[in-house]
Design a protein that fits this description.
The structure holds 2 protein chains of 2 kinds. Chain A is α+β, with helices and mostly antiparallel strands. Chain A contains 4 helices and 6 strands. Chain B has one domain: Orthogonal Bundle (Non-ribosomal Peptide Synthetase Peptidyl Carrier Protein, Chain A). Chains A and B meet through loops of A and helix 2 and helix 3 of B.
């Protein structure tokens, strides 16, 4: 996780556009100023950042399905549940599946697990629209390459 | 068998917590029922699922923005019902 730039996904482990599923890896840093306040003497990963991790993982799935031609923006979080604490250094597995591919919107179900144990889950809604500008599209492609999201040609041919 | 209008009226009532009896065929989803665009995504999702279609919301929005259509054509519920019937018929054709 790059908490300082809000880029929370370290690596795409698997993506399947036929099944419309994705799995990603996100490693919580061992140190961060966030943990100085959340909480003093008892550092825990904030729940909102776990939601953001699920949103970003879902987002990569939606971006890939749209072949980098459209961008999802988080619009709604439902049924968010936090089952266990997440401590610094935790290696998280974030998964998401596309529930519905609507016209201009998408819905996903996402989960986070740690060492095989369920950590949290949520149902997410995104507005899906054209990229606001070419620079954002380029940056997203660069980040995709960094975290190992296959390019659209590879995805298209399985 | 319930009508298309009854189905979407029930969806709207459950999704937006609007009393069912206040939802009429002539009701405008936005102007009369106060449904905002985010709530309408939940309604669209439920309609897509219930009828096995994909409401072309982007196309409709574009047509309204371009002045080629009015919101009445898509968001007055009797008109929305007719659009849904057309989409269902087109799917089965």
């Amino acid at each position: 996780m790059r908490l300082e730039t809000f880029q929370l996904i370290d690596r795409i482990a698997e993506i399947n556009l036929t099944d419309r599923k994705i799995s990603a890896e996100a490693i919580v840093p061992t140190t961060s100023t966030i943990f100085e306040g959340h909480f003093p003497g008892y550092p825990l990963m904030p729940g909102v950042l776990l939601i953001e991790s699920m949103a970003q993982t879902s987002g990569w799935l939606v971006v890939a399905i749209n072949r980098f031609e459209r961008m999802p923006f988080l619009a709604q979080v439902r049924e968010a549940k936090f089952r266990t604490f997440v401590e610094p250094g935790a290696r998280l597995t974030v998964t998401a599946e596309l529930e519905h591919d609507g016209s201009g919107y998408a819905m996903t179900n996402a989960k986070i697990a740690h060492e095989g144990k369920a950590v949290c889950s949520a149902a997410l809604t995104f507005r899906v629209m054209e990229f606001p500008n070419d620079e954002m599209n380029r940056q997203m492609r660069d980040t995709a390459a960094r975290i190992g999201l296959p390019d659209t040609e590879t995805l298209a041919h399985g | 068998m319930s009508s298309t209008f009854d189905t979407i009226a029930n969806i709207i009532s459950e999704t937006c917590d609007i009393p069912r009896e206040t939802i009429k065929p002539e009701s405008h989803a936005i102007n009369d029922l106060g449904i905002d665009s985010l709530d309408f995504l939940d309604i669209a999702f439920a309609i897509d699922k219930a009828f096995g279609i994909k409401l072309p919301l982007e196309q409709w929005t574009q047509e309204v923005n371009d002045g080629k259509a009015t919101t009445d054509q898509y968001f007055v519920l009797e008109n929305l019902s007719a659009r849904i019937d057309d989409l269902v018929a087109a799917k089965g054709a």
